Amino acid sequence: MKIIYSFLFFYAFTTVAQITYPKDYFRSPLDIPMQLSGNFGEFRPNHFHAGFDFKTMQKEGLNIYAVADGYVSRIKISTVGNGKTIYINHPNGFTSVYAHLQRSLGKIEEYIKKAHYKEQAYEIELFPSPTDLIVKKGDVMALSGNTGGSEGPHLHFEFRDTQTEKVINPYFFGFDSFMKDTKKPQISSLVVYPINENSVVNQSKRPVNLNLSLMADGSYLSQKVLAKGKIGFGIQSYDVFDFSYDKYGLFKVQTYLNGSPSFGYQLDTFSFDETKYINAFIDFYKYKKTKQRIQKLFMQNPYPLSIIRSDLSNGIIEVASNFTNLYRIEVSDFYGNTTAISIPIQYAVDEAKITEEVVKTPYLLKAKTDSNFEKDNGSVFFPAGTFYDDFYLDFDVKDNVMTVHNDLVAVNNSFQVTIIDSSAVNDEKTFIASLKENKLSYNSTKRKENTFTTYTKKLGKFILVKDTIAPKISIAKPIEGKWLSNQKTIQLTISDALSGIKSYNGFLNGKWILFEYENKTNTITHYFDDGIVAEGKNDLKVVVTDNVGNSSIFETQFFRSQKNKSEHLKTKNNCIALLFFFMGLYTYAQTARIKGIILNENKEPVENANISCENKSTTSNANGFYELTIPANQKVILVFSHISLMKITTSLQLKPNEDFEFNVVMSDKAEQMGEVIIVNNRKRVQGITNLEPEVIRRIPGANAGVENILKTLPGVYSNNELSTQYAVRGGNYDENLVYVNDIEVYRPFLIRSGQQEGLSFTNTDLVQNIDFSAGGFQAKYGDKLSSVLDITYRRPTKFGATADANFLGASASVDAVSKNQKWSAISGARYRNNSLLVKSQETETNFRPSFIDFQTNITYNASTKWQWSFLEYFSKQIRL
Fold it and tell me: Are the C-beta atoms of 384 and 369 separated by less than 8 Å?
C-alpha cells in the first residue's frame, strides 16, 4: 500500500507541473496596487487557504472588476464562510471567484434581489444560465466588503478549473508580476520526531526542538541528531515579501537524504475534498497546545493529499547501526527565493532519559477499523477512518456528562454520539450540547422517542440540554410612531443564549421583506431601497426562531414618506403657512405688533440682533429691521441683544391690534476676560492606548510589568499567569511588535513556550511613555501584526536614583547626565523570586522562579540633528 500511495502522490505532482496557464489573459480584480494579506495554500484552521487575500486599505466599498470576459455561473450569499460570493466562468476553461463582497452592482444585484424575495431567504445559492449575467473584462460588478467569516475588510480571490473545481495558485496566471519578492523564506523552528516505541532522539522519546546556526551563505546548520529507530522531521516556516511585515505561506518544500529527494510538496493546485488533510499534515497536537503550526515532513499513516510527493518511505528515516547521514530541507517561495537547513544524523545507542507521554485507558481506538464504546446511557460510534492514528481514547459517562476524549486529536470524519434519557420522550426542546469551559454549544440532534443522536467532528464533553427560552430581539432606538423618511435602513439586534438562531423573517404590512444578517454583530438590516415600504403608516413584524423551535416576535409601527425632498418640503411649508393663518385668525384680536430698526453707535444697521419677549423671539435682517408680535393689554419685557453689543431691556404695554415703532441704538460692548489656558492631552493617533508608567508599577501580579495591564485590555489574553507572553485578537505570541526608543526588540520574551519565563523585558522604573495598539496602528509599524507596544525610556536631565523592595524581589535605577548635557544614561537592575507564590500551590513543580536582569540606555547628543543611543540588556535565571 505504501508503494501505491507514493506513486499516486508523485504522479499527481508531475502531472500538475506540466500544465501551462495563460499569463496575460486576466487583469487585476482591483484598481489599487496589489498587496496580499494571505497567499495561496496558507495553513488555516481545518483547511488550506484556497486563494489570495487582497488588502483593500482597511475599508469597504472598493470597486471589484471582472478579470476577464465571461458569465456569472454561481452566486452564494451566506452568513459564514465566504459571505457574499460571485463566480465567473471564462471561455478558456477557468473560473474566477470573488468573496466577502459588500454587495453586487447593476444587473447582478437586481438578479440577486429578485431571488431573495422569490425564495424569501437571505442565505441563497444561485446558478444563472450562461446568458443571464454576461460580463466583460473590466466591468465593475461589485464592491469590496467584510461579509461572512472575514475578520477585516479585504477581497478573497480564487482561480478554479471550471470542470474539476480544483483551486489553482493565482501566481500561475501572471499575478506574480503584480508584487515584488526578493526576500528568502524564514525558518522559525525545527523539530525531530521519534516515530515508534523503539525510536530515541537525543535521549528522548518525545519530539525534540533542534538548535539552528546561521551560516555565512544564509543557510542553517542544525545541531547533530543522535538517534536510533524511525524518525521524522517538522518545521515551522513562513515567507516574507518586500515592503511588508506580513507572514505568508510557503510555495515549495523539499527534503533530501544524502542528496536524494525524500519528501516534499508544492502548492500548485488541490481540491476542496482533500484540504481537510491539513490536520494530518501539521503537528495537530502541538497546534492545539501552542497555536504553532509545525508542518510534518513525513507520513506515519499515509493520506491522499495531492500536493505531496514522497519516496517509498514517506519521509520516514530509519536510523540503524553505522548510520551517518546528512538530511537537508529546502523551503522556497514562488519567486525562487530559497532557504536551506542541513541536519547531520548519527546512530546512537543511548537510552531515553525522557520517556513517552502516553496515557493508557481501557479504550484503545484503532483508526482503520470501526469502534463503538458504551457506558450507562451514552455511547459513541467511530467509523473506520474517523482518525488518522491509533490512540487511547478517554471515554467516560459521569453525572450525565459524556466525555469523548479532548480536542488535541485531529478528526478526519464525523462520528456518532448517542444519549438515552427516559424522561425526555419525543422532547423537541432537548438536544445534545457540547460542553467546553462551562459554555454550551448546539449540535443538530435527531430524536426517536427517548434516544438522542448527533453527528459531529468535535471531540470533548457532551450533555443533554433543554432550551425553553425564546430568542431576544431589540432595537437601539425605538421607532414606534416615528417618521423615518430620512433613514435608509432599519436595524435590529437578535440573539439566542443556548441553541442558537435558526431563522429570522421580517414582514412589512404583511409582506415578507429582506433582512441581511451580520453574524459578527448579531444584527439584521433591512434597506428601504427594496421598495416595499408604504407611504405613511407602516406595520413591521419580525419573527426569530431558535434551533429547537422557540420563537420571539417583535412588532412596531412607523411612518415614512416616499416623496422627493422638494415635494416634501413644499408640503411642509404649506402646512406651516396654513397653521399660521389659522393661528393668526385666532390671535388677531389679542395681540399687538412692534417693529423698528436697530442701529449701532455709528448709526449703522445691526444684522442678526436678537429680539425676545416672553417665549417669542425674532432677529433683525441685513438692514437692521425687525418685527415681532407680542401679547396685548399686558405689560411685557422686551430684550434686545447682540453678541458684540450691549444688551437693552425695556418694558411696554400695547393695545390690541396696535402697531408700535421702536427704534433702538445699541452701544459697543467690551469686556476684559481673564487668562485662559487651553491644555490638550488628547492622543491624536487613532488606535493607540497610552499607559501610565506609575499605574503599571502599582499593578500586582506574578510577573510585575507592563504585560500585567496589557492583559486587562480588550482583545488581549494570556493562558498562563506566570508568563509575560500575551496574544491579541486570535494572533499568536510571535505577532506582537515591541519597540524601545524606536529600536525593534526581536523576540523579547526569554522562553517562547510560556513556561519558566523570567522578568518582563520592560523595566518600568526606566520608562517615560508607553503606547499600545491592538489594531488600526500606523503604517510605519507594518501590517499583519496583532499589536504594537511602543516604549520610550526617559532621557535624564539631572542625577537621580530610585529603589524598591518587597517579598517577591527588589529593583533599583540610576539616572546620570554629563555637565555639558551631551551624555546621559539611565540604568536599572531587578531581582525577582516567585518562590512564595509557586510553593504555596498544592501541585509540586520543577519551576525555578528566580531571575535577575540589568538594563542600561546611553544617549549622546552630537548636535541638534544627530543623536546616538545604545541599549543593553542582560538577564539570567538563577539556579537555586
Answer: yes
Q: What is the pLDDT of residue 755?
A: 42
Contact 337, 181 (CB under 8 A): yes
Provide, for the chain, the percentages of residues in helix, strand and coil under a 3-state DSSP scheme, each rounded to the nearest 5.
10, 45, 45
Q: For strands 94-99 and 154-161, give the pairing.
A: antiparallel
In this structure, the chain runs to a length of 880
b/e 81-90 (16+ beta carbons within 10 angstroms → b): ebbbbbbbbb
**How does residue 170 score in pLDDT terms, banded at 50, 70 and 90?**
very high
Q: Return the H-helix or E-strand segment holding 398.
A: strand 395-398
Q: What angle do CA 111, 114, 119 make, to 5 degrees?
A: 125
Q: Which residue has the cell 487575500?
A: 53
Distances (CA, A) of 831 to 704, 828, 850, 851, 852: 11, 10, 8, 6, 4
Q: Which residues pair with 448 in a beta bridge?
A: 451
Q: What cell numbers appear for 73 in the block?
A: 455561473
Q: Quick one: pLDDT at residue 879?
A: 55
Give the span between the Cα atoms of 846 and 844, in whole angstroms.
7
Closest-CA residue to 629 (of 612, 641, 650, 642): 612
CA 608 to CA 618: how far, in whole Å?
A: 9
**C-alpha cell read off for 480:** 414606534
- Using the predicted structure, report yes or no on whether residue 697 has a pLDDT greater than 70: no
Neighbouring C-alpha atoms within 13 Å toward the C-beta of 260: 10
Contact 431, 499 (CB under 8 A): yes
The single-letter DSSP state of residue 399 is T
Residue bearing cell 492514528:
389
pLDDT at 71 over 80: yes
Whether 559 and 479 have beta carbons less than 8 Å apart is answered as no
Tell me the pLDDT tens digit for each residue of 606-626.
888 899 987 788 998 877 888
Check if the beta carbon of residue 347 is closer than 8 Å to that of residue 227.
Answer: yes
Tell me how far CA of residue 383 lies from CA of 135, 272, 295, 408, 411, in angstroms: 47, 22, 27, 19, 11
Residue 754 has pLDDT above 50, yes or no: no
pTM of the model as a whole: 0.65
Please, which residues bridge with residue 201 across strands? 204, 227
Residues whose CB is less than 8 angstroms from the CB of residue 170 and which lie 6 or more positions away in sequence, other chains included: 40, 51, 52, 157, 158, 159
Most distant CA pair in the chain, distance: 125
Helix (H, G, I), strand (E, B) or coil at 575: helix
pLDDT of residue 584: 46
- The fraction of the chain above a pLDDT of 90, given in percent, is 55
In sign, the C-alpha dihedral spanning 704, 705, 711, 717 is negative
Please state whether beta strands 664-666 and 591-600 pair in parallel, antiparallel, or not at all (unpaired): parallel
Task: Tell how far CA 740 is from the center of its chain.
Answer: 26
Q: What is the DSSP letter of 528?
A: G
Q: What are phi and psi of 483, to 5 degrees?
A: -85, 125
Provide the mean pLDDT of the chain.
85
The whole-number pLDDT of residue 517 equals: 95
pLDDT per position as a tens digit, 464-514 = 999 999 999 999 999 999 999 889 999 999 999 899 999 999 999 999 999
Q: Which residues contact 634 (CB under 8 A, 6 or more apart)?
A: 653
Determine contact, residues 201/229, Cβ cutoff 8 Å.
Answer: no
List C-alpha distances in Å: 516 to 83, 107, 120, 291, 501.
11, 19, 12, 34, 14
Cell digits of residue 561: 414618506
Q: What are phi and psi of 553, to 5 degrees?
A: -125, 130
The residue-averaged pLDDT of 150-177 equals 95
d(CA 30, CA 100): 14
**3: pLDDT confidence band, cut at 50, 70 and 90?**
very low
Sequence letter at residue 842: E
N- to C-terminal Cα distance for the chain? 55
